[in-house]
Automatic annotation (TrEMBL), chains A, B:
Gene3D superfamilies hit by this protein: 3.40.50.1100
Protein name, UniProt field: Serine racemase
EC number: 4.3.1.17, 4.3.1.18, 5.1.1.18
Organism: Plakobranchus ocellatus
Tryptophan synthase beta chain-like PALP domain ranges (all copies): 18-313
Length: 324, 324
């Protein structure tokens, strides 16, 4: 189970490091969802985590570990206009160290101001992926900053894995967990820790249409070699086509081969179900996992798989422009 | 502390009766809210209660108590197109007994279908308050139904009081609780149980503008004698001007005299804060209590009152037409 650089021990150490600073997020249930699916669903509310997504777990673990081991770190840098950027900004503030977040100048003002709100310094760049990497690398070199990437990083993965420890303490009888996947940090961390606690638990990945994750899991080959691209989906938290160099082999080993590929309308309906029936605000990426939980595909699976965990990965959605 | 017909013992019995059927709702916190107020706020998520509001607690307690004491009850009736109607429909289904809910024929289809969805029979009537009472009474007489009113009923009040037992177990150090008030069933129940557990806890009521609740608490006289009327407010869960015959004396004795009277815009801003920062879907009545928690009025109060409970009373809001 232990991977080079990240195993269950690292997850337990991560939990010790971060648990005083993060929320132990609630698990909620919905009898309507149970009725529709004929199973028992348990929704882990990482949408209610600090900064509105699970990303704080991994970012804070990485930041605090650097601080433990190096007394002279001048700060952190990453490139992300989304949840990881906010999380790293917040985590750096917790650690009392500066943070720089590289975002394309054309990113929405609301995202920029959220990152600034957590005390980070915004550095604007051009709109190509390569511009971000270049700007980030330059900052890293010039200011000797520690670069914390959004998913392909052992300490980030270990931090995300802390979800499993909490979740299986809250619901020990989970038979399976449904996890939305973008780069794979969340699902790798959850898989490593959950399988260590409960070896026969099943880990299912949820994606928008077109990611070809199932092919990747069956062949062990990262999907979409070549330049990183985005899927055309409303679920911006999981629009990345490629999984990581570290995360892909972990998932190939630990995740089920069947992937839940959700249509756009199903993702929106999943979001709406969470708002209307469960009274939680979730972003579209989390809507995808609700949709997977309510899908015919799950209904057709082994009926002995009764208790299903569903990760509501984030709640950062523009409530002025909901997709219905 | 014990009132004729409803004291702490009745609340404890209610909890025994209903706890297997309802959610023990989560308590969530928000560091942004704490930062803004300089206090520690704890939000009790009754919006995530069965049927989307606290009303299930009181309705189920009343229904189960009837079932315990009478083996021949042919069913229940109430008049409410709102949360109490849904709650009684749901509670009757739990008890395996028929339920009739009287609603004005012009009530929104979405509310009617929610009540039908819980298995109750809808009985339509005219649009005047008197029409509702007449239709309800007629049904009650003809079918020998048990009438369960929305708030002015000992067992309903005892059921709502179960919130305090849970809440003070989850957060034993609460110094005060902010509660939106309509007829006063929720606040009476919470006040009776909370003061029994922790005599020096302060109970604050939250209303829309124009209810004149403070005058009522200072004089002990029900506000707005005369025919029942509605306030002109977005917070439809708390638009009733009058508190009850049973609830008014309880609140006059147990609630603080200072009432939080919130403006419409503050109520909307409170709702929005809950959606955006706390990632929960709440209705406007709950938005009023969030607004009270964030208000200058609370900020100006005794700084030794540190831990403040806030009741998010319900989450039944039309997410297709949010007020922003």
């Amino acid at each position: 189970m232990a991977k080079d650089g990240v195993g269950f021990n690292e997850v337990l150490k991560a939990l010790q490091r971060i648990s005083n600073f993060i929320h132990k997020t609630p698990v909620i249930t919905s009898s309507e969802a149970n009725l529709r699916t004929g199973r028992k669903l348990f929704f882990k509310c990482e949408n209610q985590q600090k900064t509105g997504s699970f990303k704080t777990r991994g970012a804070l673990n990485a930041v605090l570990k650097v601080k433990e081991t190096s007394s002279s770190c001048p700060g952190f840098v990453t490139h992300s206009s989304g949840n990881h950027g906010q999380a790293l900004a917040w985590a750096s503030r917790v650690a009392g160290l500066p943070c720089y977040v590289v975002v394309p100048s054309m990113a929405p003002e609301v995202k920029k101001s959220a990152i600034r709100g957590y005390g980070a310094q915004l550095v604007e760049c051009g709109h190509l992926p390569q511009d971000r990497y270049d700007t980030c690398e330059q900052l890293q070199r010039e200011k000797k900053l520690e670069f914390i990437p959004p998913y392909d990083h052992f300490d980030v993965i270990a931090g995300q894995g802390t979800i499993s420890v909490e979740f299986l303490e809250q619901v020990p009888d989970l038979d399976a967990i449904l996890i939305p996947i973008s780069g794979g940090g969340l699902s790798s961390g959850i898989a490593i820790a959950a399988k260590a606690i409960k070896p026969n638990i099943k880990i299912f990945l949820v994606t928008p249409k077109g990611k070809k994750m199932e092919e990747c899991l069956r062949t062990g080959k990262r999907p979409w070699d070549g330049p990183p691209q985005y899927l055309n989906t409303i679920a911006d938290g999981i629009r990345l086509q490629q999984t990581g160099y570290i995360t892909t082999p972990i998932l190939t080993e630990l995740a089920e081969k069947e992937v839940f590929e959700m249509e756009e309308q199903e993702i929106i309906d999943g979001m709406k179900f969470a708002f209307e029936r469960m009274k939680v605000v979730i972003e579209a990426a989390a809507g995808a996992s609700v949709a997977a939980a309510l899908s015919d595909k799950l209904r057709a699976m082994d009926p002995l798989m009764v208790n299903i965990g569903v990760i509501l990965c984030g709640g950062n959605v523009d409530i002025e422009h909901l997709p219905w």
